[in-house]
Write a structure and sequence with these properties.
The complex is a heterodimer of chains A (about 170) and B (about 550).
Chain A (H helix, E strand, L loop, with lengths): L2 H10 L11 H14 L8 H4 L1 H10 L6 H19 L10 H9 L5 H15 L11 H6 L13 H10 L6
Helix pairs in contact in A: 1-4, 2-7, 4-7, 5-7
Chain B lengths: L14 E6 L3 H12 L4 E4 L14 H6 L13 E4 L7 E2 L28 H4 L1 H5 L14 H16 L24 H12 L4 E3 L38 H7 L3 E4 L3 E7 L5 E7 L5 E11 L5 H8 L24 E8 L14 E3 L15 E6 L6 H7 L10 H13 E8 L8 E9 L5 E6 L4 H20 L4 E4 L38 E3 L14 H20 L4
Parallel strand pairs in B: 1-2, 1-9, 2-6, 3-15, 9-17
Antiparallel strand pairs in B: 3-4, 5-11, 7-8, 8-9, 10-13, 10-16, 11-12, 12-13, 14-15
The chains are: A mainly alpha (about 170), B alpha/beta (about 550).
Amino acid sequence: MSVAAAACSRRDAGESAVWKHLTAEEAEQLGAVAEQIFPADELPGALEIGVLFFIDEALGGLMSGVAPQIKQGLAELQQLSQQQHGPDARFARLDFDQQTSLLEGIEHSPFFQAMTFLTLAGVFAMPRHGGNRDHAGWRMIGFEQRHAWLPPFGYYDALEAEAENGGEPG
Amino acid sequence: MNRVEGVRYPHEHEVDFLIVGSGAAGGVLARELAQAGFEVLVLEQGPYRAGADFTHDELGVFWQGELVQHPSWSDPMTFRRRPHDEAAPAAGPPPALYARTVGGSSVHFSGNYWRFRELDFRERSLLGPISGTGFADWPITYEELEPYYTRVEWEVGVSGAPGPFDAPRSRPYPLPPMPVKSSGVLLEKGARALGLHPQPAPVAILSQPYEGRPACVHCGFCMGFGCEVNAKSSALVTMIPQAEATGRCEVRSLSTVFRVELKPSGRAAGVVYRDAAGSEHRQRAKAVIVAANGAETPRLLLLSESARHPDGLANSSGLVGKYLMGNGHSVAHAEFEHPLRDWKSIQVTRIVHDFYAHDDRRGFYGGGGLDARPLLNATPIGHALASTAPGERAWGRAFKQRVVRGFDHQLSVLGSTTSLPIEANHISLHPTLRDDMGRPALSMTYHDHADDLAMMGFLQDRAVEIMQAAGAVRVWREPVLPQNIHTHLLGTCRMGDDPATSVVDRYHRAHDVPNLFICDGSSFVTSGRGQPTLTIQALAFRAAEHIAAFARGGEI
């Protein structure tokens, strides 16, 4: 079984404590950042979509190049959390709005840019890379993976086809 | 499509023509010269992928650059805006963004096949000089190239319909336009409301079965992806198999050419290349044709310096690598009330060419075209990364809501325009950075001319008006900025009659080396308004005819 496939099966089994490249501590902190980038509302957020499984795989494989940047960024994030919220504070345990305002201060940093890419790729890349659980990312935006489509494709071209067919549905 | 397992030429065998590059130009030259009876060897640095090798894996193909990166080793590029800036390794996509695979960038392109017009070949005469540029006429005219435009359209399979501003054509398109998408309907609606003249987009994608290939199945993974069903009219599925079917053409993939070698007489003797393992080989040839694209072609010539050619092969003019052009681009985005689902099917189905010609009243040089398309919204990650307006936060709750709604409801209007030939814009060899094989890295220096930037802005203004007239609920602009990535790689070995001011003659023969030909985007004298591939292939058909005649006449 490929590493990505293994991650997929762990993801689908709902396991959470078997990271290959992340420590449990890193996973908790990165998960909180990912959830800030793509939060749950009435639709699932980054964590529920399985983004952490994607990040765990990506940092050890496809995107191992950014792993040092992520680790360093996490350390700085933790430092910042303690500076702003006391020596016992941990970023992942701050409340949602506190996390948001802290991240606003570093949103242009290479760490946060890399986390944005990792999070969005984890939501929207093919599930075989580890994230996008049950196509949840795709389903929420209306995307469907097919090899072929037929026109009409959308509302406006359907309307035009209908008009050209004398009002009959095209 | 069944590959013909054909001829294999030994290294010591002197083939008639050795072609560097299997893309839009190399593919045409290989097919034409092989069909004319010559022995042809094509060396391609990329692997020999076929339809079944192409996937919809957006992360791997589009964002990790599966088709773009060197297949066997790291080959970094650098970018800088001005010659006095530091040439730093580019983060993100390479500045010369092209596909390393058999068929070249025609495998991953979007297939927009605009012809140039009469004015594109003689605009210097029409408008006069432009200060600070090498603005010049081509040595050939539209009339001379027209039969070859027609040949390309019929030989590779282009879908389209003539528009009101098109240059004269001797034959209609072989295939009707592709089915219109919602983006095309809305561009047409807005443009007509403003008195403009939208027209179906000509594309090298099959709207109907053609020459044994199936029609497009509208899968949506087009720009940046290889076509799984061979409906995209790339060199891979048109010219290359026809070249191989002659039994005289070998396409040798995973072969990166490092140097063109000369005989003591000063004539090209062949090339030195490395295979996937990095092992060096020499291949002999009676004539060499470089068709490696407007970035890699000058790089190879510069790498081929010698005592006789101290500044690079065929570079007595000093212009190899100079006058790098791309095309200027600007983008406006629009959101509509109802779902467009523009992520299905091809990129572009309607274009507007009302602003193609130069107009003094604008106050700057230029002209261009507009098209409506999903652009990066064709695929989910691209949509999430690229659909945020300046000033909006690209993460968090509001961002997510925009991403969720936008995928089905957005389109982009792309403005495409000229890139004036400026000598300081160039491809050079990096002084210190090397690839894994010790080869100097490709270095790009580029800054758009102020008039091109002004025209990008002008086209964006028109795009915004058209989208508002089409009833968009929200329209926003991407900032018009100097560009640092080019997919259209043009002008770096310009064509001309005077060896002092050009690298190749009107038949694509290097002024300095009689059996060396250079034919690809590097031959362009001016950039055209946006879509160069059809012109690259028309030039290649024309070049092949002349090169074959020279060879038969003992003139090579």
